[in-house]
Amino acid sequence: QLLEIKLERLEGWQTKFPEDLDMYRQGILDDTTWSSDLEKHTAEIAPWVWHHRGRADILYEQIQSEEPKTRRDALAEMAQLKIPLNFEPRANASFVVLIRNKELKDFLPTISQLEQRFNHKFHYPYLFLNDKPFSQEFMQKVAASTTSNVTFARIPLDHWSMPDFIDPDQALQARKQMGANHVAYGGSLSYRHMCRFNSGFFYKHPLLQNVDWYWRVEPGVDFYCDIDYDPFLFMQRNNKMYSFVVALEEIEETIPTLWEHTLEYMLKNNVTSDWMSYFANRDGDYNLCHFWSNFEIASLRWLRSDAYEAFFKYLDEAKGFFIERWGDAPVHSLAAGMLLNRKQVHLFNDIGYRHEKFARCPDLSNAGLERRCQCPKDIDNFDNSKGSCLPQWKSLASIEWSNRDSKEALRLVRERRRYAEG
Ligand code: GDP
Ligand code: MN
User: Fold this and answer.
1) Which residues pair with 154 in a beta bridge?
2) pLDDT digits (tens, 9 = 90+) for 136-157
3) Residue 116 pLDDT > 90, yes or no?
4) Which of 73-87, 130-144, 171-185, 398-412 has the lowest mean pLDDT?
5) Is residue 130 lining ligand 1, measured as CB closer than 6 Å?
6) 155 DSSP assignment
7) Looking at domain 93-420, which CATH architecture does it have?
8) Highest mean pLDDT among 41-50, 133-142, 230-239, 325-334
9) 11: alpha, beta or left, given left = phi > 0 and alpha = psi -120 to 50?
């Protein structure tokens, strides 16, 4: 019976190039990977879904091509990989949620909004990560909130520890000092582990090794509008690597030397950019702008690239994750500024979102979009508020940032530091 369904779909799928279809059929009809569960897109039941999803999407585009060779090559590859023709294009992607057991009650409304607004149609899997074991209650209640695949996993210990090159006493003194100065999370060690983990480790988790894209979700966030298309595929098809919804200024006390280290790294490694100027003010200093990483849809391949890894390692060895309190958001942002083109970074302007006291509600009326936004009446749209870096982003022009710019900025920053230190 399954075979019949499959045949029917094959017949119904495309009558434009029947001779291609025959070729495809010969390659695939004896395959046993088909299961009705494919329709639920559950990765573990249909292994090709997991391993070839990203490729499948590209092939799927190609088999619609007018160019016979492109079409045939793509069909042959699909047959070989046993990718069904009735495949609904989707990305090789997963939600990633770093979370603690005690945040369950904050997370349940978040996942229910995410499902209702987006994922009940798209069925992307969730990966939950924790430095401690998840409780039964946590796993049961979360699993009951979605029909998609959910996985709960521990973080490897060495992804959540102080490296040898950090002096624990010095780190403790730094925490005490920042705590006494009332810097947000300044006294917290676990917060620092979290920021370092999100900067340099989550994408190395064994369960993400075959995954190309992630969407980071935090407990307590709201999604105000429907998302009726697949943002992962949008990223993939438009050659985007990193995306955001909120851009804002970082708390200066948490990153006193991050900019300096970034400039040094750029100089040492000859890194130039077409938009690093977005992050610099007129004095060559960091303008504190960064993309808020509690919402993030981005490429895991990019984070796993040698270039990103080298930058992370450099920062890690500069000790700022423990001696200062570097957040993963400015780290991701500056890495994007250095390593990506301006066009590879995308603002999902049509996503309504709230994390803590910063919310944004898109005005979609002009675009003629029916996204059923439900923004609370009393929210201020942060996009236009002081502290938002969205206006700069929207007016950003591509300006080449050369080694000379890095050098000059570094000179100015160091000069000011010497002056301040007397
Ligand atoms: P904020 O958004 O900067 O205020 O920081 P949060 O407290 O929201 O933490 C950021 C993310 O990391 C959230 O998803 C938290 O659930 C998660 N998180 C923070 N600290 C820990 C921790 O010690 N263990 C685990 N498992 N998750 C954490
Ligand atoms: Mn948060």
Assistant:
1) 130
2) 889 889 888 988 878 888 888 9
3) yes
4) 73-87
5) yes
6) P
7) Alpha-Beta Complex (3.90)
8) 325-334
9) alpha
Contact 214, 94 (CB under 8 A): yes
**What are 398's two structure tokens?**
């591509």
Cα separation, 291 vs 347, whole angstroms: 10
217 lines ligand 1 (CB under 6 A): no
Amino acid symbol at 393: W
- State the distance from the centre of ligand 2 to the C-alpha of 295, rounded, in angstroms: 10
Helix (H, G, I), strand (E, B) or coil at 5: helix
DSSP-assigned states of every residue in 157-170: GGGSS--TTS-HHH
325, with CB counted inside 10 A (0-12, 13-18, 19+), is buried
- Which SS3 state, helix, strand or coil, does residue 118 take? helix
Domain with CATH 3.90.550.10 in the chain: 93-420
291 backbone dihedrals φ, ψ, rounded to 5° = -90, 135
- Testing ligand 1's pocket by substitution, the residue of 95, 98, 205, 357 carrying the most ligand atoms inside 8 A of its CB is 98
Q: Which residue's CA is the nearest one to ligand 1's atom 15?
A: 99
Residues 316 and 136: their CA atoms lie apart, in Å, by 35
Q: Is the CB of 102 under 6 A from ligand 1?
A: no
Of ligand 1's listed atoms, the one at least distance from the Cα of 129 is 26
- In short, whether 293's Cβ falls inside 6 Å of ligand 1 is no
Q: Are 211 and 93 in contact (CB under 8 A)?
A: yes
When pLDDT is cut at 50, 70 and 90, the band that residue 175 belongs to is very high
What pLDDT does residue 29 have? 33
